[in-house]
Amino acid sequence: MHHPNASIETPMSRINVLVAATPSDLEAEGIAAAVAGYADLTLIEGRALALDEVDDCLERIAPGEACALILLGNSAAVEQTGRRLLEGRAQLVVLRVDIVDHLIHIAQYASRDKSLELGSLLAALCDLVSHAGAAPGERMTRFAVHAAPIAPPPARPLLHSAIDWIHTLLRNSASNQPGGNGDIPGYTMTAATITGLLEARPAHGAPPLAAELRQADQALSEALHGADAHAEPLAAAATVFALSGLEFRVLLLALAPELDLRYQRCIGLLLDDLGRRVGSLALFMALLGEPSEVRCQLAQSGKLARWRVLESRIPGLPGADEALHLDPPLLAWLLGASEALDADPCVRRALRLAAWPGASLFEQPLERQFATAKISHLLTEPEPGDPARFILFSGDNAAWSALLEAGAQASGVAAVRVDATHLVGLDPAGLEETGVRLGRLARLTRRPLLFDASAAEASVQADDALRLALAAIGAAGGRSGIICTEPARVVRLLGQAPFILLDQGAIRPSSRLANVRAAAARLGLAADDSALQLLARQYPLEVDGFEHAMRLAAARAKTGETPAAAMERFVNACQHVAAEGVSRMAECIEPAFELNEVILPPDRASQLDEIVDNVRLASKVLEGWKFGAQLPFGRGVTALFHGPSGTGKTMAAVSIARRLNTRILRIDLSRVVSKYIGETEKNIDRIFLDAHRSGAAILIDEAEALLGKRSEVKDAHDRYANIEVAYLLQRMETYEGLAILTTNLRQNLDPAFLRRLRFVIDFPRPDTEAREKIWRRCLPGGSHEISDAAFRHLARKVDMTGGHIRQITLRAAFLAAAADVMIGMPHIIQATSAELGKLGMAAIDLNLPGNRLAA
């Protein structure tokens, strides 16, 4: 290994080096310090960088200068970043560093040592620079760094004093064991010995202690008083549980068999049973004072039972002769296993182990400042008299969780995340046990507990479960936050418990746009603000949804794609995330037509463009120009397309969706309308919610089936049918997206419904000019041998709508394909005749005099 201050042989004078990691850690800082100490290396920025700082630093280095990047981390994001940077800079080399066996294991007092194999690593870096090829794959390699051996444990004076006290107490008790009457300790005891034990009546109060034991007891009390609860788990347990001196000593005696085999053998002797290695409550009461008084004190306090310090089959103190084991997760944590309380099976079933998504998108300084102001109190220990519970209410379910995650990461706090949905269904005893252990985990580890109830169902069973869990968690004290969508429900479940309500929203209304900007920036997209505003409005995803879309788009990245293609990739990812979970009440259609393919008179075609503009510019008009303040309802865009069948109504709706780069949900009325009272309204509501969440447009074909004129109420069926119509009208008014309805029978629609529409567009039967355009569009170039004169002839003679013309051309195409020839007039004539026959119409003679057009 090279000495950190040595010089490395290299063909160039100095190498510019950047060190970056995600997240930045001790290894990155150690490697950066080593780079700065080498004579042949120049450390850019003089420190380890975050991953998102690398691009800016590389831009400040001249393109012709050799540069090396050391990337720490094993994630896919690190790999992707390295490959992306290599594509854009020919003089760059990348050294991927994997840290092996670097986990901090507090039980063994391990630590990540900065004195890693730095010489070998930097030598490998210089070798890579010297022999780098031209291809990106030849300028990137990996290097595994192994952490140093486990460091010695830190001093723990309280534990040492506890061991001294246990040792002295057990040795003193063993030396005072009765004997001399032929007893075999641990196996037999004579009647004389037992009689001698019962001769003297029990003395009330604690017996006098031997001088050595009194000295050890005093030393233990002093060590406990001066112990640091942040550094020593035993001190933290004594402080959090508020244990009396007696209860703390019971805990130590229960801990004794785990510390030394000799203590197990001594306990067997004291129990008069060498097969037993763990003490009982009766033994510990005898060792600590007058047994009956000790038991009364422990029972009256109840702290050992309340905090689940001891294992017990029944609530309260265990039986006198029952083996007194410490609770296994607590025992492991007291001995240094930092993750033991999190791994408690009772706790683990309620925890959310993964970080809440969306935190990475709170990157703007103002958003960070806003987040800090919101959660500063929540992430710290409560002051005396300050309510420990926060109710966090927001219409955006993911906003609080993402904001809390961002704040916790910024402050280095690992919050205890609890998913309330995991608790519903547990029996009352299981709920109470889980709640107690969650509260214990939060208090002992000094971490805020964040209880996410936003997705918990609203039912009597769920309410009972949440009430029990919240009561058990609250009894532990400590700081806890409850994320919900209905604060009134949580207030009711908390009962008389004090709380602080934060209901002004987790983030500002403009934050959705800020989330979109942050996601686009992380993807390297240089989109204009108007496009991002449209995206934020069109796909009203929560912050976690935009993070999922960002990761999905990053996974689909292609080398050398244009900025427009990259933006389209992000938009498509937003579409897919938004469409997840859409119900089967509607058919999700991917738009396949362009708006210019719809053949309409100019005035109608311009109205289709106007619909697109109404959706695209909604933010500017409603929010920027404040027109939204005048529209408590009707902020969405609703349009009715009416006209004969086959005139392009559905095609126009799909084309508008394509222009807006969104999907369209076509309502299947057979699935929506139900014979059961109230079900139709529920189905309608579900469809509109799906459309809102997915950012899709709604298409109701043949709307007259559901929106016909309301009839006079003659029976219950009429009354409920009218209610369904009224509910759909109301839902249309409150919907803020795009809804398009089509009908062949406008006269059958309820006038009250027409009043609520922003656009009503008539789709007339096509005239001769329009029919010629339709014929040409339905016959793709290269598929036919139809002359211009023939197209004009067909437009004049075949007075049919575009839908029928499309069917004719499709049938003609199959006829020509079967004959293995191009489409010609004979095929068109045969297909037209068949279509007319299908409609019950008379045949048309399409042959011109001399049959000049039939060829």
From TrEMBL:
Asked whether the UniProt record includes ATP-binding among its keywords, one would answer yes
Domain named AAA+ ATPase: residues: 635-767
Offer one Pfam family short name for this entry: WHD
* Domain of life, source organism: Bacteria
> Which InterPro entries is this protein grouped with?
26S_Proteasome_ATPase, AAA+_ATPase, ATPase_AAA_core, P-loop_NTPase, WHD
- Record's keyword annotation contains Membrane: no
Q: What keywords is this UniProt entry annotated with?
A: ATP-binding, Nucleotide-binding
SUPFAM superfamilies from the entry?
Answer: P-loop containing nucleoside triphosphate hydrolases
State the family it belongs to. Answer: Belongs to the AAA ATPase family.
Q: What is this protein called?
A: AAA family ATPase
Q: Which organism is it from?
A: Massilia genomosp. 1
